[in-house]
Predict the structure.
Amino acid sequence: MKEKLQTIKAAAQNALAAADSENIIEELRVKYLGKKGELTAILKQMGSLSPEERPAMGQLVNEAKQELETLIAEKKEALKAKATELKLRAETIDITMPAKEINAGGLHPLNIVINDMIDIFQSMGFDVVDGPEVETDYYNFKCLNVPEDHPARDMQDTFYLAENLLLRTQTSAAQIRTMETRKPPIRVICPGRVFRADEVDATHSPVFHQLEGLVVDRGITMCDLKGVLEQFAREIYGSDTKVRFRPSFFPFTEPSVEVDVSCSECGGKGCRVCKGAGWIEILGAGMVHPNVLRCCGIDPDVYSGFAFGIGIDRITTTRYKISDIRLLFENDKRFLEQF
Ligand code: PHE
């Protein structure tokens, strides 16, 4: 019986050593240690031994059983570790692969300039207001003292969406909306997109940008307008910038002016940027027309005010020496990446 036990044990050990899957190990466990297993069979034969032989033999069988159980557990563990290792190796990431390029975004040059302009006017106490791009005839023209058949409408031909609904031609519409909702003293700016039916070329675009300014209070004069615009021009173009007022006409201001700044590139001598003029026209302005104040319920005998409309695209192209306004709208990354 002892020899038989040795043989079974040795056979089991060999088989286990060669086993390379959990299934095989399980089969071996059943074959040797299961209810009908070979080792179990020996235990059952113990009854045939004499009482003196029984304890020693019992101990041997139990030892063999324990040894095999440990061996099976170890073998299972080893197989599991090996499987994990294989899985990890298969799942490793190749970190030498080139990564996808990430394109960092940036502010559009127009927005850089708009932000700078807002900073300058905020430091002078102006609030920023917003207005709709789709306007009614009333806000864009009528209340701005441009009646239906006024010839000034020709200069601002635009896109009509319906009889009285149009894409705003000027941010001046914000003047009316502001005076309807605020009482003097008023000090606001309104930057935004405006639209006109223009042919596209290097200096014209059917979409462009303006920054409207409006101040209404008691005793506001043209001196205040001049002071604010001179301060603005110096901050945008440098402290030795000169400002020039030329008489002009706008239906909603009286008197009206066109405002030029000395060319920051040549200092006024004339160059490519100012097209030889020495001056660059950047805005229209004037004292708010009494009819406009009256239309908004503000008494022109008590209050006066000034307004201005700055061309943001012009400021941007002269600041960055951009020769063609179309570059601002084409979304060419090679151009935009430079800012
Ligand atoms: N809205 C005028 C334009 O687009 C500019 C302007 C604004 C003039 C405010 C006077 C006062 O041409």
Notes: The first helix runs from residue 2 to 18. The domain at 109-336 is CATH 3.30.930.10 (BirA Bifunctional Protein; domain 2). The first strand starts at residue 127 and ends at 128.
